[in-house]
Design a protein that fits this description.
The protein is an alpha+beta fold. The protein has a domain of 44 residues. The chain is 43% helix and 19% strand. The strands form 4 sheets. The chain has a two-stranded antiparallel ribbon. Strands 3-4 form a two-stranded antiparallel sheet. Strands 5-6 form a two-stranded antiparallel ribbon. The longest helix has 25 residues. It is elongated, with a radius of gyration of 22 Å.
């Protein structure tokens, strides 16, 4: 599925990337601490050099942008250890900020709208779906029936997909 997302006719699509999420709070803390340790002296540097006015403003804006980019990377690549069972893999597309991203859709959440773009993996990587994991809170019979019905309706080879049940204990 990665190749279907990141390549077109075997050639890389430079705006597309995929990566696994890291669930390591200690590593994220180490990286964030190192970033703060690096940026802290740079914030104070203009005081010792006498930089003022527009030059100071431009310097501080550059510093803000570069530091913010590293903070955003932490958000993109890391999640709290409690979500480790998700074993999440992200598919990312980058677009110019001065033009709207094409074909953006919206999904409702209780207090917000989530923007997303669809990836038609069934067309680009029809054999990618290998397994469906039924969550611990689901009614096993209903969820299995629903998954089988969806596979029959939308998957070219429904018998090639394995249904399994999550081993995570469900707690109320």
């Amino acid at each position: 599925m990665e190749d279907a997302f990141t390549k077109k006719k075997g050639k890389p699509i430079k705006q597309h990337s995929t990566f696994p999420i890291t669930y390591d709070d200690k590593e994220l803390t180490r990286i964030q601490t190192a970033l703060v340790d690096m940026v802290d002296p740079l914030i104070s540097l203009p005081r010792t050099t006498g930089v003022r006015g527009d030059t100071l403003h431009a310097y501080m804006m550059d510093l803000l942008v570069y530091h913010s980019m590293n903070v955003i990377r932490g958000v993109m690549f890391f999640k709290h250890e409690a979500y480790r069972n998700e074993n999440e893999y992200r598919f990312q597309q980058l677009f110019r900020r001065d033009k709207p991203a094409p074909a953006v859709k919206y999904r409702k959440r209780p207090s917000s709208l989530v923007r997303y773009r669809e990836f038609d993996w069934r067309r680009h990587a029809p054999g990618a779906l290998k397994q469906i994991v039924i969550g611990p809170a689901a009614d096993r019979a209903k969820a299995a029936r629903f998954a089988k019905d969806c596979l029959a309706a939308f998957h070219a080879d429904p018998d090639s997909v394995k249904l399994v049940y999550s081993k995570i204990p469900y707690r109320i």
